[in-house]
Amino acid sequence: MTVPIPPPEAARPRPWGLVVASVATAGFAVFFVVMAGLSLAGGHGEFSGHIALGLVVWALLVGVAAVVLWRRLRWARGPVVAVGLLHLLAFGQSTLVTPWAAVGALAALLAVVGALWPSTQAALGEHVAR
After folding, report:
1. Quick check: is 109 in a domain?
2. Residues 31-57: pLDDT tens digits?
3. pLDDT digits 0-9 by tens, 89-129
4. pLDDT of 13 strictly over 60
5. Per the domain annotation, does 7 fall within a domain?
6. Nearest-CA neighbor of 119 among 105, 104, 107, 130?
7. H/E element, 98
8. 3-state DSSP helix/strand/coil % of the chain, to nearest 5
9. pLDDT at residue 67 above 80?
10. Residue 70 half-sphere exposure toward CB, CA atoms < 13 A
């Protein structure tokens, strides 16, 4: 009698919610790196450098949140949801002044919904109530 061996984590397909949340969160990390570069190019001396440094640190934190969700770590949903809600509020309030901020708000909403989707919970090994 042979005992079936479960497939490794990498062999299991990722649910769409996990993919959407990870990609949207990683997109925010890239966005903030680009914003850091634009801040440096602004030419305001030391002030621009400090703003760029803050944006790079934030981009690293957001990027780590995206990677740990992609790797299906059990605790990964919390940081992605927190970052998503923060970005949803920040970009959402900016849509009145800058209509392009609606794209950021939509991406943040997708990240939050994808991270909270039941198939994402199941992929992270959390109990899903039925």
Report:
1. yes
2. 999 999 999 998 788 888 999 999 999
3. 999 999 999 999 999 999 999 999 999 999 999 998 865 55
4. yes
5. no
6. 130
7. none
8. 75, 0, 25
9. yes
10. 12
In a domain, 83, yes or no: yes
In a domain, 128, yes or no: no
> How many helices (DSSP H) and strands (DSSP E) are in the chain?
5, 0
Q: How far apart are CA 24 and CA 107, in angstroms?
A: 6
**Distance between start and end Cα atoms, the chain:** 34
Taking the mean position of all CA atoms in its chain, how far away is CA 86?
A: 11
Q: How many domains does the chain have?
A: 1
- pTM, whole model, 2 decimals? 0.84
d(CA 26, CA 122): 21
Position 11 pLDDT exceeds 70: no
Distance between alpha carbon 57 and the CA centroid of its chain, in Å? 15
* Rg, Å, the chain Cα set: 18
